[in-house]
Design brief:
This protein has 166 residues and is of the alpha+beta class. It is built from four helices and four strands.
Length: 166
């Protein structure tokens, strides 16, 4: 869940190389851990990414290029056969909250909206569960709250999530 500098850089081809760089990152991480811990980490260890959503529906062309690159690396897209069934990209644009719903209207770091970060993390966790084929994981679907996440101040959020059961 990153890509800010690549999506917002003013010089260089960062956004244009984002997809190939992410593919290389996945391969390098797997290689590193396979070499460091032989036999303990599979060469196709599960990897989850989340789309770049900074800017919400008004993302710049470079930001959209980064978001598309993240979707392209997903095994579901079929662009990288070695990623089928072990790399998943979670589409997170629906979790963007504009400045009027957030503690900050400056646009940086998703307006510091804790709900956005929590929902993206939840979505990525659910994506990982599909890769692990963990159909018995107890979680509410969809994520619900007894008390919705609310900004108390720029550094604090208050909420009460619905209890999950199995």
């Amino acid at each position: 869940f990153h890509g800010f500098d690549d999506a917002n850089g003013t010089n260089g081809p960062e956004a244009g190389r984002y997809e190939q760089n992410m593919v290389q990152l996945v391969k390098e991480l797997r290689s590193y851990f396979e070499n460091r811990y032989p036999g303990q980490v599979a060469p196709n260890a599960p990897f989850v990414a989340s789309t770049y959503i900074q800017g919400g529906p008004d993302r710049t062309p470079r930001a959209l290029q980064v978001a598309d690159a993240l979707l392209n690396i997903s095994g579901d897209a079929g662009n990288y056969p070695e990623f089928v069934g072990n790399v998943k990209t979670h589409e997170s644009i629906e979790y963007w909250r504009d400045g009027s719903e957030s503690p900050s209207g400056d646009g940086i770091h998703h307006h510091w909206n804790a709900e956005t970060f929590m929902l993206v993390g939840d979505g990525m966790g659910r994506a990982m569960l599909t890769l692990l084929d963990d159909t018995k994981a107890p979680f509410p679907d969809p994520m619900t709250f007894e008390i919705a996440p609310t900004a108390v101040d720029v550094a604090t959020v208050g909420m009460v999530a619905t209890t999950a059961s199995d």
